[in-house]
Specification:
Largest interface: A-B, 26 and 22 residues
Strand order of the largest sheet of chain B: 2-3-1-4-5-6-7
CATH architecture of the largest domain in chain A: 3-Layer(aba) Sandwich
Oligomer: heterodimer
Order of helices and strands of chain B: EHEHEEHEEHHHHE
Radius of gyration of chain B: 15 Å
Shape of chain B: globular
CATH class of the largest domain in chain A: Alpha Beta
CATH superfamily of chain B: Pyruvate-ferredoxin oxidoreductase, PFOR, domain III
CATH topology of the largest domain in chain A: Rossmann fold
Distance between the termini of chain A: 54 Å
Chain lengths: 364, 183
Amino acid sequence: MGELKLMKGNEVIAEAAIRCGCDGYFGYPITPQSEIMEYLALREPWKETGMVFLQAESEVAAINMIYGGASCGKRVMTTSSSPGMSLMMEGLSYIAGAELPCVIVNIVRGGPGLGTIQPSQADYNQATKGGGHGDYQSIVLAPATVQEMYDFVELSFDLAFKYRIPAIILSDGVIGQMMEKVTLGEFKPRWTAEQIEQMSGSWATTGMKGRKMNVTTSLRLQSEDLEKHNNNLQAKYRTIEKEEVRFDEYMTDDAEYILVAYGSSARICHKTVELAREKGLKVGLLRPITVWPYPTKRLQELAQKAKGMMAVEMSAGQMFIDLKLAVNGKTPVEYYGRMGGMVPSPSEVLGALEKQLIGGANNE
Amino acid sequence: MTEEIIIAGFGGQGVLSMGKILAYSGVMQNQEVSWMPAYGPEMRGGTANVTVILSDEKVSSPILHEYDTAIVLNQQSMNKFEKAVKPGGILLFDPNGITTPPTRTDINIYKIEGTAEAANMGNPKTFNMIILGAYLKLKPIIKMENVEKGLQNSLPERHHKLIPLNLKAIDMGMEKVEKFSLQ
């Protein structure tokens, strides 16, 4: 049994990195995720596990340090918030192109532009549709609790190395800033040079030592080569879509109406379901845990029997498009959301559900 | 049992740390808890507030728009949160600096002279614990032994010598809290 603590989501990300054997953190401060760096600086992990902690001169530098560390087979991570993530997109595309593993945390704030420091989910498209240039994907996990902030760091490293792909933890100012109970796991040692050679020797630039040279690059000037590389990437993405979908359901068994929400919006919708049930309305919640890959198949199943579904998100309906594609007309789908750092209340969501979907269905 | 609380006042009054001690005390009592601070522009304006939820069950939404209890420590917070108390709920406030007292008749309103009592105790920093004491008198949802453990866990080791003073301040708050009668 691990240690029970009351901690902020941001602090937990940092502690999880240290405990799961992260080799290096490179980042640049930005609200609302600066506690991650502050915690690491205070915690001085380099003394305890040898984990490198470095404040880069910018987000562009930080993501390229990740590129370098990942090339060597090291478990490296960075964290940022929306404007900082935009700066990292070039590097992320290179890392995806070079098929390297890394973990990136985005504690999303309101945009576009510098926007606000308040919570938002408006980076959904950026995270789930590549974000930088080219045809690529990252695995995207959306924690809804502080405990999941902890658990998903190690899970992200595991998935990143399993598929040699960037893994993004897509959270927001709510989960980053709040404190909840969290059980911290055991310390796991960082990989030794031998373990890295064993795990990643076929691709990591760890020094040739008598074997053939490993090269990490995203540059493939021959179009035939690059198309073949793209086909390989796409095949990998199809495997991930088959193998790595994660989601959670609450009271969907008998639900006539299903809310679909991730991260902090899912917490709000959980309460909306409670309020709806008190009124005798059969409402349930599907919470995508991986927003890419998206739980398309399960949503298709639920759409067969549901009277309607509603996407609830703190954006203009970015996830709503994925929901519509999944449901493909099988049942009515609606969207409710707030933008710019506004967080909807559970009763507000219930009101929208009654007005847009339940009322609509009864009027037919 | 689920208790949804907003604590609101000026930065520096110990609003966030009071919320943290309350949340930690809940953890010590095996409750589910959440602590959600306002960290946005309102904080830059000098006001601070935190939503604390204590529950026997998993906490769903950490962000709320109405509360079982509002603890209000300045006029701006009174303007914002008096109306956010659920009917039948509790509004606890310190009259110091309050120019427009509360007027609702469908909630239970209590006052605690926290600023004055802290001055009497000779240490203005005991203010937030006096308020916490007043709250715990009105809503005795956490055993005192767990509040003490909460203090131990949320205060850094170097401040543990101050725990007896904090406990004294909590007692003072319990003793001095009184029903507020509408004018």
